[in-house]
Amino acid sequence: MKKIILFILFLSINALSQNKINLRSEYLVTLSDLANALLALQINETNNSNFGALQCPSCNILHTRAAEAVFPFTIMYEETKDKKYLTAAINLGNWLIDQQLEEGQWKETPWEWTGTTADQLLMITLAYPLIENELSDSEKIKWKNSIKSAADYLEKYMSPDFASINYNPTTAACMMTTYSLIPDEKYRVKAKQLADWTIAKMDEAGFIQGEAARSFGVKYGVDLGYEMDMSLWGLELYSKLNNDKNVHEIVKRSLEKNLNFVYPNGAIDGSWGSRCYKWTTFGSKTADGSQILFSLFADEDERYATASIRNLNYLRSMIKDGLIGNGPHFWDIMADKLCNYPTFARAKNLALSIFYTENKDYNLPELPSDISGWYKYYPTINTLITRSENFMMTVTGYNYKDLTFTNGGQYNQHPTGGTVANIWLKDFGFLQTSSQTKYIRGEVMHMPVMNDTVIALTPRIEFSNENGYFTNLYEFENRIQIEEIENSLVKVKAVGELKNEHWYQGGVGYSLEHIVNDNYIQKNVEINFHDRNPIVKIIEPIVQDKVTEIKMISPKKAEIIKDIKKFYFEIIEGDVMLSIADQADKFIFPFPAMKVFPLQIIVIKPESGFIQKIKYRLSID
User: Fold this and answer.
1) What fold characterizes domain 372-620?
2) What angle is formed at CA 486 by the lines to CA 484 and CA 489, rounded to 5 degrees?
3) What are the pLDDT digits (tens) for 150-201?
4) SS3 string of 14-29?
5) Where are the domains positioned within the chain?
6) pLDDT tens across 471-500, in order?
7) Which residues pair with residue 376 across a beta bridge?
């Protein structure tokens, strides 16, 4: 086994030196790490009633979704012929079938939710033909009956009214894989219906609505993470298996715009979406991943091969002993919160990618994010992305609003108000990033308990008074203006009111401009004290990993050093001072798992007039 992996690594390094990549070989290297870590979590005592299950490292729960590893184990057996993977796959598949309920569904333990039956069915239908000859006669009957029962359940119940939208294309795909084993026409009909329902929920830009709360039973809300890691590949796999060229073309157009959100370091920017509460920077914690999506399109456009390997390499930086954390700083700040969800979900994605990817070398052309001098604004999500020579940035005013406050308002904590959701700096990495505005454990199983208060990572304007907390991050009705200006790439300006969590105004308005230049990003802020005079704070957190040093060198200037890269945060206009925010040690977050160093600017009402203006820059040395 070690010789095989070393040989694959040799081929991969050789291909990379020629700016080519064998995606399939790269996927296998990482899948091997993940699969071996999952093997170590398997219950192997035959007298245990849960023999074959995978145990979660942090909560000890036997997540039924973890049994999706049946297909990754199967692929590892196919590639290595090592019997330990075959044994693991069969034992895990048998355990999963034993958990199946009367109508054919599986609960997503410890929840009652059964929509994940689609994920489990897809894996077992793909694994079965590959290991059928290794199963006993009774196991063959048991597996086939289980597949039919699960497929019948999904055929009966799955729809956009039943589940968040990503489950529908996943079900479309598993209906087709079931159809290949049990050629009942109702499965193919259902697959087509679900695919068409999904594309019907795309807006004019190609973003899929349906990842947040319901309005009169209809789900709304866009989440790029789930779109990339789940919905689009489910649609494309369905179209491949059912030869649905119309769906293929629609997915292709949607993916084209999403490619702009792949940062140069391989991060996929799902920071601003309605499910940002599970965004890890490499994708979403419980979603599968984008390698299968990129691989399905790499033969048509090799930029997707580049995107795939970039994202995979970025993901690799967050793997320790074969297990995946929830973000770049996870292993330093909250390793005790480890869950096996990201590991088996990404293993599933890589197994799919190996199964559906040609064994050949791909060229690695540039991504849009490698090219400087552009910006894209998407009105349907009120979000702009831009790339200059040294910076890539996302500014968002995404205005999705859940009026029902599902699970305490989990869908209303996404960045907005014209804030920066991410700033990436060449040869530095993420300089600024974002998180939920307030940590709400809307999906309790997936979101760890934090013993101490955590404070948002997102740059923001804020104040507190006797009426509560007010910030631009709750200004969902901000007005964005975009302008091209001399000597800079673009200026994006947001105007609005500082509001509380329920969107009540607090008597203070603001405008927030970002000017993007090759060598700096300038932020121009105007605070309009039109009715109240609180002390307003501008919070500007800087991403701080173990090797990043941040020093206050004057009341107007801070120096940021990482390796050989030096960077400055400097106030260039305004009667204000720079300082460190209160409770600086609490500026960490579980999603993405990152730590930031919070700089702050205190703003008070001017002695004459009511508007205070401040300008400051983040610039390279």
Assistant:
1) Beta-galactosidase; Chain A, domain 5 (2.70.98)
2) 50
3) 999 999 999 999 999 999 999 999 999 999 999 999 999 999 999 999 999 9
4) HHHHCCEEEHHHHHHH
5) 372-620
6) 999 999 999 999 998 888 999 999 999 999
7) 385
